[in-house]
Specification:
It contains 16 helices and 11 strands. The protein is α/β, with parallel strands linked by helices. It has 2 domains: 71 residues, no CATH class; 312 residues, TIM Barrel (Alpha-Beta Barrel), CATH 3.20.20.70. The strands form 2 sheets. Strands 5-6-7-8-9-1-10-11 form an 8-stranded mixed sheet. The protein has a 3-stranded parallel sheet with strand order 2-3-4, covered by helices on one side. Strand 2, helix 6 and strand 3 form a beta-alpha-beta unit. Helix 4 runs antiparallel to helix 12, helix 5 packs across helix 13 and helix 9 crosses helix 11. The longest helix is centred in the middle third of the chain and has 18 residues. The structure holds iron/sulfur cluster.
Length: 409
């Protein structure tokens, strides 16, 4: 059975796997779901819940890989980017967060000034990065004016650098503080030079869980509304879900279903990134972490359920590079990114990747290691370089690390 499934996974886009499942899967619901996937039909919320509760990894991998290869063949995307995290001090106290320092302990954290941040941007002047990803804690001094000035200054310095910045958590706070509507706020953000929005801050939308793990910050509905407005301005964004803590199957399905509905309405999401709860040094450490099997099932079900999302991305600093490589056979077609050791969000939560940085050569090797074709993309999935057949002469002198200043101003 396992060998047959592996064979199918490698040739799956050419085959009718329902025939196999008719022989091997004595379960009419799973057969029915497999038929829907084979025929390109949407699965229901109940089907999704059934997959979480009853489907095994071989079955899920076959379906997810079928969809992945139908959409993207062997292509695996990655980008060259770096993160800019203005502060890890935060007004909020999300129970899953290992990264933030409460204001009363702010001396333990960092708070970059405008100048610090522009200095970081300038350190990348001669590096072939295409994107800066800006996200961090929430503090009063980082208000609407601060951020719009920052974005304008980055654009003035390096116009072609794509700014992917802030989540609805920050936007909700800075717009309330500035007494502007979401619409007015997002128009100001667009005008200041932000090119797209990352997917963070989504956590779990359902209030039963959200109120326990992320009380006080924007609600699930508010998160969705800010993305809706951004999409209707003609802009693109990403989406995430934080899984593996106190949520149950119904909360995962509710979350995925709300994303799928908004995507039907706007078409503005580019990629979905499942984010694993990591348990080090936070208020939910006692929960431990879900297994690699559970991670893999979650990625595969996301690929099967979100039929209107183009991409499923693995964020390797969070899940580890070996796991990210494995997930390329379970629905994932995109890896983020070279990163350059510029995020502390997951290393502080106990991720295997304590200094997350991969050179382009390392990332290409990782993708080729599972017989996929590496393609460097920009943030909007335009092809920058097709690495098929590219032979690296030498590892470049630039190894991916740039020292970051830490400021406690
Ligand atoms: S998850 Fe974000 S909003 Fe919540 S405490 Fe951490 S930095 Fe603050």
């Amino acid at each position: 059975m396992t060998e047959l499934l592996l064979l199918l996974q490698s040739n799956v886009k050419h085959m009718d796997f329902t025939k196999l499942f008719e022989k091997t899967t004595p379960n009419s619901t799973l057969l029915d779901i497999a038929r829907k996937v084979q025929n390109g039909e949407r699965i229901s919320d109940d089907d999704g819940a059934y997959l979480f509760d009853r489907a095994d990894l071989g079955y899920l991998g076959t379906l997810a890989n079928y969809i992945r290869e139908k959409r993207h063949g062997n292509t695996t995307y990655f980008n060259r980017n770096f993160h800019l995290e203005p502060t890890n001090v935060c007004l909020y106290t999300c129970t899953f967060c290992s990264y933030s320092r409460l204001i009363k302990k702010r001396s333990e954290g960092w708070e970059y000034s405008m100048e610090d941040m522009l200095d970081i941007i300038k350190q990348y002047d001669d590096k072939p990065v295409t994107e800066v990803h800006i996200v961090g804690g929430v503090l009063p001094q980082y208000d609407l004016k601060f951020y719009t000035d920052l974005f304008k200054a980055i654009k003035a310095h390096r116009p072609e650098l794509h700014i992917k910045a802030l989540t609805p958590v920050e936007y909700h706070y800075i717009f309330k503080k500035a007494k502007v509507s979401y619409q007015e706020g997002m128009e100001a953000i667009q005008a200041s030079g932000v090119d797209s929005m990352p997917g963070g801050g989504a956590e779990i939308f359902h209030p039963e869980i959200r109120d326990q793990i992320a009380g006080g910050k924007c609600s699930g509905e508010e998160w969705l509304e800010i993305h809706r407005i951004w999409h209707k301005l003609g802009q693109r964004s990403n989406a995430t879900m934080l899984y593996g803590h106190i949520e149950k199957t119904e909360h995962r399905i509710d979350h995925l279903s709300k994303l799928r509905d908004l995507q039907d309405e706007t078409g503005g999401f580019q990629t979905f990134i499942p984010l694993k709860f990591r348990s080090q040094d936070n208020q939910m450490s006692h929960l431990g972490e879900v297994s690699a099997i559970e991670d893999t099932k979650l990625y595969a079900i996301s690929r099967i359920f979100l039929d209107n999302f183009d991409h499923i991305k693995a964020y390797w600093p969070m899940i580890g590079r070996n796991m990210a490589q494995t997930l390329l056979s379970y629905g994932v077609d995109d890896l983020d990114g070279t990163i350059d050791d510029t995020t502390k969000i997951y290393s502080m939560a106990g991720s295997e990747e304590q200094n997350p940085a991969l050179s382009t050569q390392e990332l290409v090797k990782l993708i080729r290691g599972v017989n996929r074709t590496p393609i460097e993309r920009d943030t909007l999935y335009n092809v920058v370089t097709d690495f098929e057949g590219v032979v690296f002469e030498d590892e470049t002198a630039y190894n991916g690390y740039v020292p970051l200043p830490v400021s406690n101003n």
